[in-house]
Amino acid sequence: MPASLRALLADLIDYAGLYPPASLPPEIVLERYRGSRASPDAWILNRLVLPAAKLAQAPLEPGWRVTLLVEGEPGPLPDQVETLEIKAPRRLSLPTYCEAPLAELGPAAYAKVRTGGLTPEMFPSTAELARFLCDAAERRVPFKATAGLHHPIRSAHPLTYAKDSPRATMHGFLNVFCAAALAWNGAEEARVVEMLEETDAAALQFRDAGLRWRGRELTSAQIHSTRREFAHSFGSCSFEEPVSDLRELGILP
Length: 253
Known about the structure:
Layout: H1 3-9, E1 13-15, H2 26-37, E2 45-51, E3 66-69, E4 81-86, E5 96-98, E6 110-114, H3 126-139, E7 143-146, E8 155-158, E9 167-170, H4 173-184, H5 189-196, E10 205-206, E11 210-213, E12 216-219, H6 220-229, E13 231-236, H7 240-248
Parallel strand pairs: 1-2, 1-13, 2-3, 3-4, 4-5, 5-6, 6-7, 7-13
Antiparallel strand pairs: 8-9, 10-11, 11-12
Helix pairs in contact: 1-6, 3-4, 3-5, 4-5, 4-6
């Protein structure tokens, strides 16, 4: 596997099966997280997303990694809980992703950006998302993304699993994290928009040395540092769907 692709995908997906559109029962979510951790694709899996209200009913296993959605300081927590997420602009006792405007974030807080939802109007435009990425990169604020990133490349899909689901053009997670790498490494905002609007997976050429895309190159080291220091992960209600899509596109073997 090309080093640039491994750098981009490692620990990328936070599994959020409790949340829409999957909305799975807790016991199924735990079973699927356990199975994904034991699969050959476990290197792509990051944390299990849980709300604080469900933590007491979730028998966490050794080695599991959890990000916990909270409304305030949660108090003592199991060792498996590594990060917190809150709809407020302040860092709590653990590294905290804050779903709040960047300009309002307190010291050492991380950002959380919503990249979609259950209706078309919940998806930010490419210009809005590029502005967030460039602003966060300029401020040196790490982030995670949530909602809507089920597929690798920008394309139109149903927004839920219902037969009568609305359709919309969804952001691709490869687009978003490659765009983040461009922003982190000083690309102009217009170029970040172009990456977010890319619809041809073949235009992304992953090699050991780096990623080549329409005359622009990012080294594997640049991608690795982007993921470590800036673009941390994205939450998805499915782990299997995004990974299967990568295989269908021929990006993963």
